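A reminder from the course coordinator: this example appears on the midterm review sheet, so study it carefully.

Given structure:
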């Protein structure tokens, strides 16, 4: 493996019972289960974002979430990036591409000392700390029953392992072009290292 393309979402972007499939084994919320049924676990490795589905049913299910789905504004996205930058500086993680979108994040990363699921948890934690420090967390003034701030990110991640330089370049270009597809300017992050080929 040369790299991994990793995607993770903001809270509420992709439900555990999304009709296109999900990473989840179960639906923890009774209201969400009643609205849209059991988890739609999939082992699909390609993106399902554009798969045909019942859009109205998906939107109706989102009304059953405990909180509104998170949509990061520009200042919040910048804070997420600052959190990532701090993590990269301290850990030595190499990031070859990044796009921090309104409802999800794309990263292309070099193989690292921890597995992707744990890495994603650490990155979400770094972003959350920065959002809280800058008072930009979407749920800044709310508390869970345990006293913690509700999560701004959804559970899990989607990942594709890249075994060739061609695949890695393709993923990097996809990530770099992603903001433009949503009418956003190209993103440049201080924590991204240019990819120069197989390490």
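Designed residues:
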């Amino acid at each position: 493996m040369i790299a991994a393309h990793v995607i993770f979402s903001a809270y509420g972007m992709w439900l555990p019972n999304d009709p296109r499939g999900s990473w989840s084994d179960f639906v923890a919320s009774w209201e969400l289960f009643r609205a849209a049924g059991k988890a739609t676990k999939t082992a699909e490795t390609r993106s399902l974002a554009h798969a045909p589905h019942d859009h109205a049913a998906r939107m109706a299910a989102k009304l059953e979430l405990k909180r509104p789905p998170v949509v990061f504004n520009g200042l919040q996205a910048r804070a997420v990036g600052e959190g990532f930058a701090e993590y990269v500086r301290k850990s030595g993680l190499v990031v070859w591409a990044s796009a921090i979108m309104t409802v999800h994040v794309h990263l292309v990363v070099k193989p690292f000392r921890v597995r992707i699921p744990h890495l994603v948890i650490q990155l979400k934690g770094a972003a959350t700390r920065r959002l809280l420090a800058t008072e930009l967390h979407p749920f800044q003034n709310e508390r869970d029953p345990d006293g913690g701030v509700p999560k701004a990110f959804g559970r899990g991640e989607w990942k594709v392992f890249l075994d060739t330089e061609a695949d890695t370049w393709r993923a990097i270009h996809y990530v770099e072009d992603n903001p433009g597809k949503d009418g956003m300017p190209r993103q440049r992050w201080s924590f991204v290292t240019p990819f120069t080929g197989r390490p």
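The mean pLDDT is 85. Residues 20 and 51 are 6 Å apart (CA to CA).
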